[in-house]
Amino acid sequence: QSALTQPASVSGSPGQSITISCTGTNSDIGVYNYVSWYQQHPGKAPKLMIYNFINRPSGVSNRFSGSKSGNTASLIISGLQAEDEADYYCNSYTSRIWMFGGGTKLTVL
Amino acid sequence: QLQLQESGSGLVKPSQTLSLTCAVSGGSISSGDYSWNWIRQPPGKGLEWIGYIYHSGSTYYNPSLKSRVTMSVDRSKNQFSLKLTSVTAADTAVYYCARFLLGGEYAFDIWGQGTTVSVSS
User: Would you say residue A9 has pLDDT above 80?
Assistant: First the structure.
């Protein structure tokens, strides 16, 4: 099983926009529309932020959005706020398993 | 609102079996719209999907752990369980149970708070 590649860290200032990428292959992100994104604050359980690449669950801020291009999914956070500082994980379906990316630590400067 | 709560052995000796249970409240485990999953996170590391079970008892496990994992469901108690055999220090992690949406959304939408399991003699 291949891994989903995320940058280890990204940072931005309050009010700015940032993008976290999640790169897979044509065996996972490239062929299935089942990518989701999770936010995890220290010591807490992950929280679903985006599903099926672009959809937001009820209650999630519209500052969070997702996109897909080829074998790469992206999470975009606009209007950065201090509370957005957390770890973010992508997840995709591949060959009957659900695979997570390595995670990205977002720092709000 | 449905909630999940993990419980079980917090300290397991090497080579022994890790046993955890996830209690489902505020909803029924018998709905066919979901699968019930275990996911773990070693200290300071990322998430690893362990496997899922349906209310019918059908299971599928991550091939990397398949030889050591068994999941079961108890519909009468509205809970599901994980057993991991022959544990080593590498199995030390926070273990989460999570509900997975099957109706087109395809995501882990509800998570338990997690339970820490340490493997040590």
Answer: yes
